[in-house]
Amino acid sequence: MSASKVSFAKALNTALADAMEASREVVVFGEDVGTLGGVFRITDGLTARFGRERCFDTPLAESGIIGTAVGMAMNGMRPVAEMQFDAFAYPAFEQVASHVAKMHNRTRGRLTMPLVIRIPYGGGVGGVEHHCDSSESYYAHTPGLKVFTPASVRDAYVMLREAIDSPDPVVFFEPKRLYWSTAQVDLDELREQYENGSLPRREGHAVVAREGSDATLISYGPSVPVCLAAAEEAAKDGMSVEVIDLGSVVPYDDGTVAASVRRTGRAVVVAESQGFASVASEIAARTQERCFHSLAAPVLRVTGFDIPYPSPSFEHHHIPSSERILDALDDLQWED
Amino acid sequence: MSEPTPAGEPAVREKSPVNPAVEASKNFGITPEQYMLPASSEIRLLNPDGSAVPESEQGQEPGHEYPMPEDSRLLDAYEKLVVGRRINDQNMALVRQGRMAVYPSSHGQEACQVAAALCLEDDDWLFPTYRDSVAVMSRGVDPLEVMSTYRGDWHGGYDPRKYKVSVQATPLTTQLLHAVGVAHAAKLRGEDTVALAMCGDGATSEGDFHEALNFAAVFQLPVLFLVQNNGYAISVPLSSQTRAPSLAHKGVGYGMASERVDGNDLAALLSVLGRGIELCRQGGGPLLVEAMTYRMQAHTNADDDTRYRERDEVAEWVAKDPITRMQHYLTGQGALDDAASERISEHAEAMAKRLREAMAHKPELDPQDLFRFVYHEPTPQLREQAEQLADELSREEA
């Protein structure tokens, strides 16, 4: 066993295969996930390996996919449903908000909903309308759901395994522009560590992706690599910037974020989604509430604009860039 | 489940699945379309006056013959009918007295309610709507557990897994997809569970109705969809919901067999649903059954049905009442004598008394329950809020 170059997509694919291998309760379904292996190939090879009973194509109907997943979860399965793109998940929203999220509460815990809804999300891939939304705030706003979004190859594997094993329903956001990113990872070792319980839990735990002492960037999903690039640039100007990768948006790790911001005294929240009434707003508010007396400047947000996701020719203006993050860091009321 | 093939081999392309209706039609010498369409008129075994429909007048089209159930089975069902009616009326009284928050009564539709529950085996699943409390109770769920929802104590009162009865659905037709999922899981495990999913006529306009029927048909799942066509979606008549010849006619569009049945004829319902469930169990599902019935009272206590329907129309349906019809038939058969009638009515009164007594007392509710069940593993944020509320309440008490 040794580390090799692994793509984000391969890590997700391996996590699905390992989860299916570990339990016959795990079934994978959605649009084009069978013979084709998914439009992003995340389910590649699963039908061939596990049979079309366990990885199958459904009719083209998102509410149908999630509604039947609810029934399967009621009857002892652990369904992993794929929504083909972020904005194509909206037809399933009633099933998600009214049943996936509420069934455990409504039945006083007698019915659990151990299902995963995988949603490729976000832009930066030149996608046309309805293919690039960052829709995590709708789900994070809905009590009863857990919301994960990995930013690294390693987390792609670990967090998808955690999501599938969770007794609670997890909406799993996959940053589609990171699908082809790679890292040196030993998947065999990671599998062994995950399965023997030696990995720290990622649910509810943010990680410090880069240590720093002058300011904290709080981010998740596709914006984490942008924050790391901005921190690298800032270092050239002598600024030490810490980057926090939430990974788990719900449950949210107040402790790790607050500890960092109390230490640095300055914070910028970075997310690709439109900012108004968003996850970024919630993080900014919570940070302010917990760290007010340690703050040297207001908590700022760098997010997408409050516009419908723009056409490919415009999207570079919309997605938070390293430059916009550096500008925000400059705005944090530094004393000369 | 088939044996997994080695990794790396390309998946085999799907072959077209065999439609069970096509197979079944061979036995009757009719086309698959003819098999899937409902009989030319609704299936009825008992006339409104309680006389048996002569065999010569029953639908004798191939594939649509239904036998009259045994008297003993009908008597058992009749008892549930009488108890169900008493519970419906008792609950409406409790709402008027302010002891219950709301109750959507199935007064007039009790035959559909009882038949839906009685045609299922223990391991089958029932998916009821908010109006189907009598079906839920007929399946054996304690009425007091059912009523916790309508008293306003919790959104669901009984254990769905214990009774194999899903929570009563308030949104329209979302539960049909859950039934499809339950049946799919059972099929994957090789179990012969059947799911019976209920909805109303107005609900057939919802998108999830279409998606559920289509998924069930594509995956050939053992689901029986029972539409209680009571004529109205609150105030809107069926003519404003659809231009289809009947709701049962929608089945053929999905490639499933369908039937229309007199929804106030308990004998016909038991026969049609009983055979439907058996067909599903043998792999001939899914199926669609439309039961023609009538909601004798307003949508709920909050509704005023004089604004949208004539009293003459309501009166017409009094004459088609499911209880008097079955009572006359069973009396004529010699299966229902005075002693049996008295025993049944005592049973119904005892049930009503139990409801009245239980609803006279509000149970102790624990505010911490608000947080307890949102997640299996609560978030730290929710724990904080639970502590906040507990702290607030303790200060109020101090």
From TrEMBL, chain A:
Keywords annotated in UniProt: Oxidoreductase
UniProt xrefs under Pfam families: Transket_pyr, Transketolase_C
EC number(s) on file: 1.2.4.4
Gene3D superfamilies hit by this protein: 3.40.50.920, 3.40.50.970
Domain of life per record: Bacteria
Residue ranges of every copy of the Transketolase-like pyrimidine-binding domain listed in the record: 6-181
Cofactor annotation: thiamine diphosphate
PANTHER family: 2-OXOISOVALERATE DEHYDROGENASE SUBUNIT BETA, MITOCHONDRIAL, 2-OXOISOVALERATE DEHYDROGENASE SUBUNIT BETA-RELATED
Stored SMART domains: Transket_pyr
Keyword Oxidoreductase: yes
Presence of the UniProt keyword Disulfide bond in the record: no
Protein name: 3-methyl-2-oxobutanoate dehydrogenase (2-methylpropanoyl-transferring)
